[in-house]
Specification:
mainly beta, disordered N terminus
Length: about 525
Amino acid sequence: MTQAPFGEIPLKIRGPAAVAIALLLALLIGLILRKRAEPRADPEAPRAAAEKAASPKGAPRDAEAGPAPEGAREEPEKPPALRRISGRLLHADRTGAERCGLALTLAWTMGVPPVHYAASGAEGAFAFPGVAPGEYRVTAAFDAVSVPVEVGAADVEGLELVLPASAAVLATVVDARGAAVAGARVALPYSPGDSAGTTDELGRVRLTAVGDHVFVAVTAAPPGDRRYLLPPEVELRPGQREVRLVLADAALATGVVLTPRGLPTSLLLHTVRDHAILASTTSDGDGHFEASVPLDGTASLVIDVGGGALAIREEEETEFTRVTGRLDGVRAGDRDLRLRLVAVPRDRALSVRVESPAGKPVAGARVELIEDAGSLAVEETDAVGVAHFEKLYDTLLLVDVTRPADDPAAADWLTGRVHRVTPAGQEVVVRLREGVRLRGVILLPDGEPCIGAHVCPTIKRADCPLTTVGEDGAFGFLLDPDDQDRLDFQAWAEIRSVKYSGGLRRVDPRAGSVTIRLIRDP
């Protein structure tokens, strides 16, 4: 028998059987080629995956185990999804308040600048996009109206802020001789809407004020060669709706503003006497300024009336630096003044020790230092419950401590705060306190649970923001057991275009549970 050539089958098979065998061989060869094309599995991968599943997230590997296999590397945590807050700003008559500024501030942190700004549009509509989950409050008209908001897993829609009643204010601006001053800019600093305008040829401007506490200020003198000093801000008496403002004559002083490195810079300068702003001007790109100063006596040129600091960048490649600047003894007619800014040193340190209600150290607590300019630094406490801060400015701080989010034992601890701390290398102790849980249910007039109702305390509390109830109409708040003023609660809902509201007054935080029954709004 002769040997079959390479590649031939040494059998004489004919007909359908030969076709079937050829198909099977083709299928087998295809499987082999596909298997070879697949990447080879790492023999260590199953063990690495098992170690990853068995060890807690972020736990360090044993030093003797060597570097982690490629397959055992953890993916970085994804940042929380940003949400959107939207709603309407309304006048007292429920019409939309347009062209009004709103602010989104961290929940009930007084004196802290907002994290977002917005302006109301058509029919008072406003929106804050790109908001991280957390507790906030939306304010308008410089806190004349405020609504607490909790941002969670979904967008917050349908908020309503209702402004107090408004009234017209007539302001008249004259010079020292009683002549009308046209072109002066007048504003109601703490009122929304049409709260600023320019005086006409009779020196008059009509503005719209909101609420009973109304302030009027001349914010800019008219353009031209004649120089004026701005009068102090005026607070109107209740019911007063007309005011007369007098601009005093001023003289000129010139000079240049220089950075700590001697570079010219452009920034806002204020002419100040007895802590009052008399005029303001801005230096140009070459640092030159022309300031209005009183005709008699002396004044000061400062870059911040409150004695604080500004952040500037001297050159493109340098970081922002906080600076202060002040030039005293400025007289009318002074020329070629030099205001050299001074860098604010960052040589202060502070340690914050966080303790549980039982006095034990709390690890993983979030400690935030807050100043007038906003959040300054955030750290977590270490294993012995201490957060260390360095390179701080010499400034007053609010120390805000939040319980560890992943510790079930801390679920009922209240937020801790220490006010007016000046860092000087010292240690501040913050002992968190136990809160009490107040639970409740919101019912419709027929006694059924109200799905999607909103409830919040009317007195602002940092640990109990606006809450939206679920299908069972239940809600819960963490409250301070030592709260002496008793809390009022407000609840509302809108179902199929029908509005409901209700509430409770003087609720004891230790009441345990409450029931709010809504009634239909007229």
